[in-house]
Specification:
By secondary structure, this protein is an alpha/beta fold. It contains ten helices and twelve strands. The chain is globular and about 55 Å long.
Length: 291
């Protein structure tokens, strides 16, 4: 009996290079973006076989939720035109310094919309450029096809997303489960001009990276990051940040560390700050003692 090779959710550049040479199944590589910030750079040079994926396609940004979920039928057509099918394995990368910004958010979005065969390239485009340096270019029309060369269908997983009312219910009963974990920097989490959701724990987004190697820390180091912040990975967590993007990075890290029950508050603090009662916005500015 033929067995299909299991592809890790976290891929090294060397592992992706090997997949490109001998794929065990159809691989769709997506360079992820949020609002076409890097479209011209993609056209100039990208990882071989990659298609450009702007996850704000099919969305309607609002003041409360600037990065909302795409309209389902439009999104199905968009992914299908990128050549993506539900049976594919999707590899995601971006051009952020560590490779976990748009790619993490795309991982959560695609997982919420029913894709489970997903990987993120550890270190992203710049790590690939350093370690492999095999690139392709595209003209302006390459990713503007009108025909659907794949067949992607959304299967919504509501367990992976939380909305304002969900968080309000958790806070209103003073519940500490699920854990609310905030990915924003400590100065925003504690700050007098920002604050946080009651009972939230803080793991700043930058804490999960090895700045020297420009990729994620090791599993042992990541487990310590979560433990030191008071997060119990055996219990459910809701991840939040400012707009739901860096929260998705924490959710992805928790996933590779084995957390079974996790979700992202899509509106995150942008929505919470505008809608929540003032008593549910905790401001505990850290004051350094005088020298």
């Amino acid at each position: 009996m033929k067995t299909t090779k299991i592809i890790s959710p976290l891929l090294s550049c060397q592992a992706l290079n090997e997949l490109l040479r001998t794929p065990p199944k159809k691989i769709s590589i997506l360079e992820t973006d949020i609002g076409k910030q890097f479209e011209k750079e993609y056209q100039s040079a990208h990882i071989p076989q990659a298609r450009y994926f702007d996850q704000l396609e099919c969305t309607t940004p609002t003041k409360l939720i600037p990065r909302g979920l795409p309209e389902i039928k439009c999104f199905e057509s968009y992914l299908s035109r990128l050549g993506v099918s539900n049976s594919d394995h999707i590899v995601l990368y971006d051009r952020s310094p560590m490779g976990f910004y748009a790619s993490s958010r795309a991982w959560w979005l695609l997982k919420t919309y029913g894709m489970n065969s997903l990987s993120i390239l550890n270190g992203g485009f710049y790590k690939w450029l350093k370690d492999i340096n095999t690139l392709e270019s595209s003209d302006n029309n390459t990713d503007s096809k009108t025909e659907e060369t794949g067949k992607f269908t959304v299967h919504l997983n509501k367990d992976l997303i939380k909305n304002y009312d969900d968080i309000l219910n958790i806070v209103s009963i003073n519940s500490k489960e699920p854990q609310i974990v905030d990915a924003r920097p400590a100065n925003l989490f504690h700050g007098s001009n920002a604050g946080h959701i009651p009972n939230a724990l803080n793991i700043p987004y930058t804490n999960v990276f090895d700045q020297t190697k420009q990729c994620l820390k090791s599993d042992d180091e990541l487990n310590k990051v979560f433990t030191n912040a008071g997060v119990d990975l055996s219990k459910p967590s809701v991840y939040s940040c400012q707009t739901g993007t860096t929260a998705s990075t924490l959710a992805f890290v928790a996933h590779i560390l084995g957390q079974k029950s996790l979700s992202v508050y899509n509106g995150s603090f942008t929505e919470w700050q505008q809608r929540a009662p003032q008593e549910f916005i905790i401001r505990d500015q850290i004051v350094k003692p005088a020298a």
